[in-house]
From TrEMBL:
Protein's name according to its UniProt entry: Cellulose synthase/poly-beta-1,6-N-acetylglucosamine synthase-like glycosyltransferase
Family classification: Belongs to the glycosyltransferase 2 family.
Domain Glycosyltransferase 2-like stretches: 45-211
One protein family per Pfam: Glycos_transf_2
Keyword annotations of the record: Glycosyltransferase, Membrane, Transferase, Transmembrane, Transmembrane helix
Length: 370
């Protein structure tokens, strides 16, 4: 059996895995319709942990305070900032009775650890239902809180939302960041839809305070600098307690990184927690990523070798059709339709970038959240 034949059989297996993932795991969210659940407005505490975010708070906090919601407080947590963050928070508190301020001093044991600051903010909140977002985020509508809170129930104590990034014209990096964001959302929404939630994003996430304290907060991974969102959700989420919310009114929007270096540093922090997920999630996510990588490596190799190019092109076409269908439905729901036609190119750049990040993280670990 020649090398080309072995590669072809391997390619068939890889395409089979990819088609299975897109057709089974990921398509479950792709075809799901957004549901609007507007219920009685329960008391909500919004928690925003900020480190050196003076300008973002000045610009974005008014949009948080302007929510069309009858009963909510905003807990602002200053995480040892050295810019004007504390002053901006103090000014807002003086003019808004529903703001609570937590000033976190430098603590050597927890320096650079957002989880410590978040824990103090959670303890200071007065309501049992908590909504988390970041200082650089804005809600997509005045109904943001209404849509998120409508997904809480006696059974559902976690709500996973979507944190989008704003669009920038003529920027390949912006498209790559948004493509990665959609693909991540496609996965965590799909897994939750299938009853196996594994992560959420801190830009748009909600859960009950009772759930936090019953799990002893972030204690099991407090020494890990990242993971206040995904590691916590990976621990506590299950088939029955997790809901997903992806109506366009429920989105938050953030400003994306503007340089590859800044984005790579951000992704290094995010990816560093994946090795601490439950084993079943590690296996499923790793299998999908490795099959993506091998699809490109083996597919290109077979075309270069000239092995039965009609069969190879057919397999490539089958896989791309499945990807476009699944990604296309998702991108339309998440208002990212400009990415659909570029999906194969963006995927190639993304998986090579992720490979370099994995290697970099093996050599050294990112140390601080800011």
């Amino acid at each position: 059996m020649t090398l080309s034949v072995i590669l072809f059989y391997a390619f068939c297996a890889v395409v089979g895995i990819q088609v299975f993932y897109y057709g089974t795991f990921l398509f479950s969210f792709g075809v799901k319709r957004a549901e609007t659940r507007l219920k009685k407005q329960i008391p909500i505490s919004i928690i925003i942990c900020a480190k050196n975010e003076a300008e973002n708070l000045k610009n974005n906090l008014p949009l948080i305070l302007n929510q069309d919601y009858s009963n909510f407080e905003v807990v602002l947590v200053n995480d040892s900032s050295f810019d004007d963050t504390l002053e901006i928070m103090t000014d807002f508190k003086a003019n808004n009775s529903n703001i609570k301020l937590v000033d976190v001093k430098v603590n050597e044991a927890f320096w650079g650890n957002k989880k410590y600051a978040l824990t103090l903010g959670i303890k200071a909140s007065k309501n049992d239902f908590l909504v988390f977002t970041d200082a650089d985020c804005i809600p997509n509508s005045t109904k943001w809180l209404t849509h998120l809170s409508g997904n809480f129930s006696n059974e559902k104590s976690i709500v996973l939302g979507y944190g989008a990034y704003s669009k920038k014209k003529f920027s390949f990096l912006n498209k790559l960041i948004r493509f990665e964001t959609v693909m991540t959302a496609l996965q965590y929404f799909s897994y939750a839809q299938l009853g196996s939630p594994y992560m959420g994003v801190g830009r748009n996430l909600a859960y009950r305070k009772e759930l936090f304290f019953n799990n002893c907060g972030f204690n099991n991974h407090m020494t890990i600098k990242s993971g206040d969102d995904d590691l916590f959700i990976n621990e506590v989420a299950n088939t029955s307690n997790t809901s997903i919310c992806f109506t366009k009114e429920s989105f938050t929007i953030s400003e994306p990184k503007t340089t590859f270096k800044a984005w790579i540093l951000q992704k290094r922090r995010h990816i560093s927690t994946a090795s601490l997920y439950k084993l079943k999630h590690q296996f499923l996510l790793a299998t999908f990523y490795i099959s993506q990588l091998l699809f490109w490596i083996i597919g290109i190799s077979l075309l270069v070798l000239g092995f039965s190019w009609q069969l190879v092109i057919s397999l490539i076409g089958l896989r791309f059709v499945m990807q476009w269908l699944c990604f296309g439905f998702t991108a339309k729901k998440l208002e990212e339709t400009d990415l659909i036609i570029l999906a194969p190119i963006l995927e190639l750049f993304l998986i090579t970038t992720q490979l370099s990040i994995f290697i970099a993280n093996l050599i050294s670990k990112p140390k601080h959240w800011k």
